Amino acid sequence: MGQPLPFLQRFHGEVTACDRMQMFHHKPVTIWLTGLSGAGKSTIAFELERQLASLGHASYVLDGDNIRHGLASDLGFDKKDRRENIRRVAHVAQLMNDAGLIVIAALISPMREDRAMAREIVGPGNFIETYLAASVDACARRDPKGLYAKARAGEIASFTGVSAPYEIPSDPELKIDTAMSTPAESVAHIFSYLRDKCLMDTDCTVP
Ligand code: ADP
Where does the APS kinase domain start and stop, copy by copy (predicted)? Predict the structure, then answer.
């Protein structure tokens, strides 16, 4: 990656993080959903976004599959490209947090060191690593996109959980077993965390 040019300066606007928190009624954090394909990242991310919107909170889903149509369309699935994908998404999340939005990132992000990099880029105080736990077999039974069948037949290389590793988070802020809870329960779990940590006004409802 290129280094910032030495003559580039940063400009700082007059709208502060505090101003934005008052406007949006929440602390702009990044909820980073990690887990195997089929663990429920997209399902939970978009339901969380829907519920946040219904309460008047501005949030946005950065979904791994969607990102690969544009921002990361030049990247593949080897270790280096996955890391670059995560680096880009983390920078976008950080910018969106800066703008005041709650970001919900839904990426397999299988390697611990890549998630640690994302945490550093976003800012450790704003990063909520959320591990959606579900075994390979449970995900393969769901197989919403038919990818496990293809991966097991050898038609997809470097498929996480089948032919590429997934490193289980050692110390995530949240762990949700999606084989044991419904998507609605998983979203409720995340809401409880946000409320317990005072990251959102509980009474925020836009008419
Ligand atoms: P990912 O984004 O992690 O690849 P998806 O959200 O695309 O996963 O797919 C998960 C699939 O599993 C969906 O079809 C969803 O309806 C289904 N599913 C079944 N039970 C659950 C659950 N408890 N939580 C989340 N998804 C579930």
Answer: 28-177
**64 CB under 6 A from ligand 1?**
no
Give residue 143 CA to ligand 1 midpoint distance, Å.
9
- pLDDT, tens digit, 9 for 90 and up, residues 106-133: 999 999 999 999 999 999 999 999 999 9
Distance of CA 52 to the CA centre of its chain: 15
Run of H or E residues at 188: helix 183-196
List, for residues 26-79, the tens digit of each pLDDT value.
Answer: 999 999 999 999 999 999 999 999 999 999 999 999 999 999 999 999 999 999
The domain made up of 17-196 is a member of CATH 3.40.50.300: yes
d(CA 127, CA 121): 9
Rounded to whole angstroms, the Cα distance separating 124 from 117 reads: 10
Residue 100 · residue 16 · CB < 8 Å: no
Q: In the predicted model, what is the mean pLDDT of the chain?
A: 93
Using a CB cutoff of 8 Å and minimum separation of 24, what contacts does 120-123 make?
Answer: 121/87, 121/90, 121/91, 121/93, 121/94, 122/30, 122/32, 122/90, 122/93, 122/94, 122/97, 123/94, 123/97
Question: Does the C-beta of 142 come closer than 6 Å to ligand 1?
Answer: yes
d(CA 152, CA 57): 41
Per-position DSSP letters for 44-76, written without gaps between them: HHHHHHHHHHHTT--EEEEEHHHHTTTTTTT--
